[in-house]
Amino acid sequence: MHVEGHPDQKWPELPKLNALEEQAKRLGEEFHRRFKRAPITTTFKDGLNNMGVNQHKSTLTGQDTTGVNDGSKNSTLMNYLPDAWNHGAEMYFLFQPNLLISRFCGCEVRYIKPVKQGENKWTVHFAWHGDKRGEFEDSIYTALMWVQAKEFVFLGAGTFGTTEILLRSKAYGLKVSPALGKGMSGNGDILAFAYNTDQIVNGIGTEDEEYLKENPVGPCITGIIDMRDAEVAPDVLDGYVIEEGVVPEVLAQILGPMLHLTPDKVKPKGRSLGELLRSASSKLKSEVAGPWKHGGALNRTLTYLIMSHDDNQAYMSLENNKPALRFNGVARSKHVEFLDQILATGANRLHGTFERNPFYAPEFGGAEITVHPIGGANMSSDGTGQKGVTNHLGQVFQGLGQEVHDGLVVVDGAVVPAALGVNPFATITALAERSVEKLAIQKGWNIDYDTKNGILSFNHA
C-alpha cells in the first residue's frame, strides 16, 4: 500500500492545509509542534503502481469523501483487486480505464452455512440484484443463489455488513459467541466546523477543472494535529487527532442552510470593526455568488474531523430480519465537552464561528454521526468466545470456548474491539494482511511476496 503526504514542492499550496496549520499556531505551541502533513492513500504522480495498474496523479478535487474518480486514490480498486486478479481470482474487466469489477458485484450476501457433506466447507447464500432482479421485491430475498467455498470464506463486508451477515447466519443455526453484535464503536469521531474564518480554506469539493486551476481543494485529509503522545495524554484514552476535511460537492448547496440551523453556536468575541465588516462581506458573497465564491463565508469554512475514544456502547441486532443499530455515540460526555471546547477556541481564534455537527442525531440519544464504525465481531481479549467473537486471526468462535469455525474469517473493521483514536484504515489493513499470512502458514501454503506484478492484463497467465 503506497502512502505519502501532500508534496511540498511542484504542487500548488492547499489553503485548507495551510488553514489547519494556522489553526494549530493560534491554539499555541503545544498544538503547532504536533501539526504535520498526514500520510494519505493518494498518489501524486502518473505511472504504474506496484500492482501493475496505471494510476493518475491527484486532480485535487476533494471528492475523496464520495469516491474520487480521477484514478489517484489507492483504494482496493487499485491494489488488492488487481493483485487478486493477477493471482487468478475470478474477476473481469469492464471496458473502462483502470476499472476492475468483481464477477460477483451486485450480490448481497445474506447468510453463511457450513456444508455437512462433500469437499466444500461453506455455502454462501446471496441475493442477486443484477438483471433488474431487485424489482421483484417479493422474491429477491427468498429466491437466493449460492456458491460454495472449499477452504475459506473471508468476510470483508465492512463493520455493519459483516456483523449483519453473521447475525443472520446465527439465526440460521451458525454457532457463534453471544458477544456478536455488541461492543461496537464510532471510533470517537466528531465532525464540526469553523464557519466564516479569516482564512481562505477551499474546503468544498468540485470537479470543475477551471475552478480548480486557481482554487485547488486537494485530497480530503492532508494535515493532522496529533495529540496522542504521553506528554499531552498520559491516559491513552484521552488522546485524539484533529484533521481537516472536505465537504463533498453534493452537499455544497445545502451546507449554508444546515450551518444556519445548527444550534449551540459559539461565536467569536471582541472582533474588531474591520473583522466584523470582513465577516459580513464574506456572508454576502456566499449568499449571492454561491458556496465556491472565493472569499465567501463557505469558502472560508474549515471542516474539523476528530478521532478520539468512546465507550463501545453501540450494538446491532436483527429486527424483522433487518439490521437495527442502537448507537449511543461517543458517550464520554466530559471528554466530548473538552474536545468541543478546544475546537470552539480554535474556531474563534480564526475569527470564525464554531458549529457543531449539523447531522446531530437526537434519535440516537444525541449521538455524533461517525464515518468509522468498528466492532460487532470483536477480537477477543482472552482468546475465547467469552470476551469476543473472533480470535486474533479473525477466525469466528463456535461459542464461548476457544474452538473456531474452520475457514470462516473476518478481515475488516468488525474485528477491531475498541476505538483507535485515529483513522482506522491502516490498522484494519494490517490485521487483514496478518490474518491471511498466518492462516496460509497454518495451511502450509507459500505466499510469494517477492515476484512483482507485471502490467495488468485482461487475461490470466
Q: Compute the gyration radius: what is it? A: 24 Å
Helix content: 10-25%
Widest sheet: strand order? 1-11-12-13-10-16
Number of domains: 2
What is the CATH C-level name of the largest domain?
Answer: Alpha Beta
What integer is the average pLDDT?
89
Task: Explain what the structure shows.
23% of the residues lie in helices and 18% in strands. It has 461 residues and is of the alpha+beta class. The protein has two domains: 42-184 and 373-443, FAD/NAD(P)-binding domain; 190-364, no CATH class. A six-stranded antiparallel sheet has the order 1-11-12-13-10-16, covered by helices on one side. Helix 1 crosses helix 8.
List keywords for this structure.
9 helices; 461 residues; six-stranded antiparallel β-sheet; three-stranded antiparallel β-sheet; alpha+beta; FAD/NAD(P)-binding domain; 23% helix; single chain; 2 domains
Quick overview of this protein structure:
By secondary structure, the protein is of the alpha+beta class. 23% of the residues lie in helices and 18% in strands. Strands 1-11-12-13-10-16 form a 6-stranded antiparallel beta sheet, with helices on one face. A 3-stranded antiparallel beta sheet has the order 6-7-8.
